[in-house]
């Protein structure tokens, strides 16, 4: 018989898929690492498992304890999966820009969710950082993983994502592109790939325009899970060789094209990463192999990026509307 002994055994070992149509005119090979194939539907399953293992080992999480975390959804799902298997309670704090779909997923896994306003500073007592700190103090037996500073986040990508990419490309990868949120993915995966390739792999961060990683002021943008208005400890800024940015409009356009042209239904941060990879690949040659990490699925964004009315309300859609004269249907 061939089976996983628990859903946790299904974390990691996600496949690489070559992009064929959206890459027209580009000489380099563009491979995407499809992280929505993790059991919780995102790359965050990897960090959740390693963070909880470490907290159990060092005693900060005891039997019957509660996990409290500010999360835009995916980390919550990963933590909820592992917590559920091991008997912990979960309380998650989400900013109100996070889609209802994502919040309902957390609740479906048995977690409790507290929603806070997006348009306040991190220091504000109502911010999602402040509220989660307060809950972690008030709830007895609470453990706050703090994905923004926990070294086990980047460590999980160093131990799994990086080696998987190196093995699957037989060491031929030349460029690695990933969105930057907490910075854990790019820091851990990037560090491994640079070490194993003796500095040959070029690491490129993808950032929504407006976020500080690409020199913005931290002004709001709509792409979820990426960009920041402060510098997290999980992010080692010496790892990326370059940070590229894309607007919400560019990222969402590519997100929709990935579904229609490549059969990959992905979230907006995946569109961002591919948009930046396509910019980086303009001058590359047929010898180059670019690996782009795609964090999650489009299922959580059906009411937003894949909803024409929502897209039109932000003025994102005209160039994609096939009914309008003068606009080419894609
Ligand atoms: N995309 C999505 C949808 C995410 O939830 C996250 C995590 N915040 C990221 C990208 C960025 O990953 P990281 O936190 O490792 O930088």
TrEMBL record:
It comes from the Bacteria. GO terms for molecular function: cystathionine beta-synthase activity. It catalyses: L-homocysteine + L-serine = L,L-cystathionine + H2O. Its EC number is 4.2.1.22. Keywords: CBS domain, Lyase, Pyridoxal phosphate. Signal peptide: none annotated. It is an enzyme of class 4 (lyase). Its cofactor is pyridoxal 5'-phosphate. Pathway: Amino-acid biosynthesis; L-cysteine biosynthesis; L-cysteine from L-homocysteine and L-serine: step 1/2. Belongs to the cysteine synthase/cystathionine beta-synthase family. This is Cystathionine beta-synthase. The chain holds residues 1 to 330 of 468 of the full protein.
């Amino acid at each position: 018989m061939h089976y996983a002994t628990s859903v946790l055994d299904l974390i990691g070992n996600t496949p690489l898929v070559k992009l064929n149509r959206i890459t027209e005119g580009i000489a380099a090979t563009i491979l995407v690492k499809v992280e929505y194939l993790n059991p919780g539907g995102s790359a965050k399953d990897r960090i959740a498992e390693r963070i909880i293992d470490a907290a159990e080992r060092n005693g900060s999480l005891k039997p019957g304890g509660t996990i409290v975390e500010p999360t835009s959804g995916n980390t919550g799902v990963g933590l909820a999966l592992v917590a559920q298997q091991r008997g912990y309670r979960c309380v998650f704090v989400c900013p109100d820009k996070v889609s209802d779909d994502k919040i309902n997923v957390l609740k479906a896994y048995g977690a409790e969710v507290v929603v806070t306003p997006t348009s306040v500073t991190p220091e504000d007592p109502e911010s999602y950082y402040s509220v989660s700190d307060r809950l972690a103090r008030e709830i007895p037996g609470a453990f706050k993983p703090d994905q923004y500073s926990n070294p086990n986040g980047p460590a999980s990508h160093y131990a799994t994502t990086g080696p998987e990419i190196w093995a699957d490309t037989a060491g031929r990868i030349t460029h690695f592109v990933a969105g930057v949120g907490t910075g854990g993915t790019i820091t851990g995966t990037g560090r491994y790939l640079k070490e194993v390739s003796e500095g040959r792999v070029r690491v490129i961060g993808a950032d929504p325009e407006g976020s500080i990683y690409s020199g913005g002021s931290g002004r709001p943008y709509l792409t979820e899970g990426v960009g920041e208005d402060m510098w997290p400890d999980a992010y080692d800024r010496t790892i990326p060789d370059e940070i590229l940015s894309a607007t919400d409009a560019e990222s969402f356009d590519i997100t929709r094209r990935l579904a229609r042209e490549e059969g990959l239904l992905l979230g907006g941060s995946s569109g961002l990463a591919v948009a930046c990879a396509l910019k980086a690949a303009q001058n590359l040659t047929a010898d180059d192999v670019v690996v782009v990490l795609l964090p999650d699925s489009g299922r959580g964004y059906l009411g937003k990026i894949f909803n024409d009315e929502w897209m039109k309300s932000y003025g994102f859609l005209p160039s994609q509307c096939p009914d309008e004269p003068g606009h080419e249907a894609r």
